[in-house]
Amino acid sequence: MPLVRIAVRQGKSAAYRRAVADAVHEGMVEAIRVPKEDRFQIVTEHDADGLIVDRTFLGVDRSDDAVIVQISLRRGRSVELKQALYKRIVEKLADGPGVRPADVLIVLSENDLADWSFGNGEAHYVLNPPQPIAAAA
Hints:
By secondary structure, the protein is an alpha/beta fold. The protein has one domain (3-127): 2-Layer Sandwich (Macrophage Migration Inhibitory Factor), CATH 3.30.429. Helix content is 29%, strand content 21%. Strands 2-1-3-4 form a 4-stranded mixed β-sheet, with helices on one face. Helix 1 (14-32) runs antiparallel to helix 2 (79-95). The two termini are 20 Å apart.
């Protein structure tokens, strides 16, 4: 049920943007067991004035090709699962479109079951709660 927003530098090809989106989704499927068909992503491009990233914050050496990933998801995953998610997304981005790990910023925003409507004006998870979140194998 995650909603993912991905911001990339303007001028990247459609293939690059799709590869970034695919890598992020695959990382979530593999690390935190998001169902493969549960895919809702918004990919946006930004010029230099619209994607401002400090190049050295916390000692990380970032380039102009930063990728910012914002994931809204249901509350309940452990710190260990979140760390596994960050690591897997960065690995997938490095393998796929070739994003440098230092250029990936990920932020999670957690919420509750009543905070989601997938259509028809219904709070689907209130009406039909999903299974509890299980630890990844």
